[in-house]
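USER: Write out one fold?

ASSISTANT:
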Amino acid sequence: MFFSILSEISWHHLHPIMVNFTAALVPASVGSDLLGKITKRMSLSHAAWWTLLYAAIVTPLTATAGWFWKRQVEAGLSAETIWKHQWLGISLAAVFIGLAIWRGVIHRRNESPGALYFLLASAVVAALVYEGNLGGSMIFG
């Protein structure tokens, strides 16, 4: 039964499924770090590290799936919007990896992030919201 369900999945449509992981994991990471800082609970800081690591792993795969899907749908989309979405997505995938490396160093030191990290991470979340808005506008109008 499991394999029959898998056979019905269009692998070209993985991108809209996978974006939900990034859209949830990155803000959850920043929120967990903020709550960990406020409440002084290291368990929240550890959760922030792991969720960001997962986002850094899945997001490049999501961007790759988007490139494959683009080939099928680009004819009916605004060239400017798809260009912005494509390059912002690729940039964010790279930024998530860099942010995860930085966060990993903080994690290994068993510390919580400082103000500069929160400032950059908040800007990244804002860019992620904009990226999601671009993607949503292409799909839902």
